[in-house]
Task: structure prediction
Amino acid sequence: MVKKPSLPHFRYERQLAKKSVWPIAGMDEVGRGPLAGPVAAAAVILDPARLPKGVNDSKALTAEEREAAYEEIMRHAVAVSVAFASAAEIDAINIRQASLAAMRRALAALAVAPSYVLVDGNDLPAALCCAGETIIGGDARSLSIAAASIVAKVTRDRLMARLCGLFPVYGFSRHVGYATPEHLAAIAKHGPSPYHRLSFSPFRAEPAA
Result:
């Protein structure tokens, strides 16, 4: 019998709450790899009495499942925020620093101030508004982080669809800025848009051999 993969749980949050650490936010970012568009970060504080259904690592869900989970999260969460770092900011300070900046902004923008934050990965942003810790693979382990991954992904995908309306030749709504053959061909034909990351290949000049 094939064992089903385990879903993200709420045990990290409950353990902290038993120590009187509350509210607890989960945080994740999406969009480090694309050639265009911002990097997005989301922070989510879930209600322990109204945990959303259908929440998993955003990468493990279909677009339809993510949309349904997003609506569940937005309906039941205590607080949700999303913040961005633009393509220009990514070019200016690099993708890692821009991602960390977006996370700081998202956490600070929550309508309910968190006491602690759980962050996906192993890179804890400096100067956060509260204490926190990283969890490697957290979007598949912590329900709060998984919720943040869904909110960030859905919000960024919707933004890229809007940018597709402004710059339809690139097909942003289909690849959300990633380096697909269609996207690379459009760049070769039309050059970059104002939303492309010029510090990324193929825009960045390669060093001479």
Q: What stands out?
A: The mean pLDDT is 95. The longest strand covers residues 24-30.
